[in-house]
Design brief:
The chain is mainly α and 211 residues long. It has helices at residues 8-18, 36-49, 95-101, 132-135, 148-156, 161-167, 176-186, 191-206, and strands spanning 70-73, 90-93, 136-139, 142-145. The longest helix is centred in the last third of the chain and has 16 residues, at 191-206. The protein is elongated. Bound molecules: zinc ion.
Amino acid sequence: MTPVEYSPASQAIVKAFEAVPEENQSASYWSNDEVEPVRAEIKDHYILEQLYHCVYCARQIVTANKALWDAEHVISRSKASRFMFTPRNLAVSCRDCNNAKGDKEIRSNPKRKSFPDGSGHYLIVHPHYDTYADHIRWFGDICAPLSEKGTETLVVCNLTRFTAKLLGIKGIISDPSFDEQVGQLIKAKSKLEALSRIAAITVYVENIPQK
Ligand SMILES: [Zn+2]
């Protein structure tokens, strides 16, 4: 994915922020009115760059209406405001993934000072450093993680919500044993094996306490 390149006007705003000593950089600066053109530039760029797909759930939202997209900070602003405008820390996501992810820690070494500029620094699938299809595969509304990063992304962004909706379950499924069972279903080599996996998942799901 090509990172955003700021216009001269946006660059000036970004540079002014990055010149502030780190301890005085506020995560809420992002929401200031003067930052609006920068936010718009970021969204416009990544909506097109991602071909209208959310970086986490891969769902397509065919609109360039910025109100329907969230600017996504892979490393959240509250965890490291110094990366607020770092192009490779930015993408767009759907609102549900962004809300689920919140300000969870997704770095393998949160103490690192400089920007983590490679796949190995992240616990989840990174929109700039990873190939999504290597880590997550979708079968309709069932998410099959193909790697540890895939599993972590599934949990962090609550990607089982689609399955939950499909199955009519209220609440959140995000426990390793459910993921494991879904993974086993995907790997089933025969119809009989698949049916027995489905039966096992059904029993498991029916035993999830309703909220
Ligand atoms: Zn999403």
